[in-house]
Amino acid sequence: MKDKIKLSLKILISIILLSYILMTNDINNILSIISTSNLYFLLFSILFIVINYIFSSIRWYFLLLEKEKPGLIYMIKLYFVGSFFNNFLPTSIGGDAYKIYKLGEKISSKTNAFTATFLERFIGMFALIIISLYGYLTFSGVEVLSFIFIFLLGLLSFFVFMIFYPKFTIKPAKLVKFFDILDRIHSSFLRYRNNKKIIFYSLLSSILIQVASVLSQYFVFLSLNIEIPLNYSFFAFPLIFLSGYAIPSVNSLGSQEILYTTFFSNIGIAAGTIISASFLYHFVRLVVSLVGAYFYINDKEYIKK
Q1: Is residue 196 one of the residues assigned to a domain?
Q2: Is the pLDDT of residue 153 over 90?
Q3: pLDDT score for 214
Q4: Which long-range contacts (CB under 8 A, 24 or more apart) does 11-18 make?
Q5: Into how many domains does the chain fold?
Q6: CB 204 within 8 A of CB 196
């Protein structure tokens, strides 16, 4: 019941935000701008999203510390299926729940599936902060460094907690299951202490992966004949993506448009163009996620088992 209420709330927030955007902007103007988009640049955007997904899948594969683990092709397909489910589940990580569930079934450990999936996301978020800091330091006139540090502090706090996790001896009866789950997750995390190289190489690869993510959005703006300073792109797009974790909505619908407007109106881009670019990026991601839909529908034996 609570899950349904939360989902309904996030859908409602997306509807409210989108309604506000459409009411305060000329829809015909937005459609007109979208119609002028350059297909050549949109294809580059699609290419960088595909690169992002494939290399994220490879990172996820190596972070899964199982003696017998699924093949890399399986992981890539499952990653694309997760991206497809993101179109319908709340927040930009809704598809991760499906990935954890199916991977957990495959390796007979939902705990280890959660740990690998969480680290794949966590390291990617850390890389986003590094890229955003680079953009901040090379682009003047931006005063949101405190937001970056707060987000970074939150990530590090969780990581430190899992490393120095206290063994709770007092467990209230109603929370026994919760602490049991926490104990299993902690034990799963401890396996990475002896695999520091995997963490290090995952971080290095994550920087390249997130650069591809930034470029996928950068080329959407280029398709509308808008050239954003590249260093500002490295600053703004990671923060927009990170904010998507915190703002309740369905696959960032509504929240992404608000964030795009907040960041790019500061550098003189017209609101109609910004909203058009955001809608185009939603569309481009949807197109790529249809690959996951194909795997889900036509490869049932491989994905659904």
Answers
A1: yes
A2: no
A3: 94
A4: 11/90, 11/250, 13/247, 13/248, 13/249, 13/254, 13/255, 14/249, 14/250, 14/253, 14/254, 14/255, 15/254, 16/254, 17/249, 17/253, 17/254, 17/255, 17/257, 17/258, 18/253, 18/254, 18/257
A5: 1
A6: no
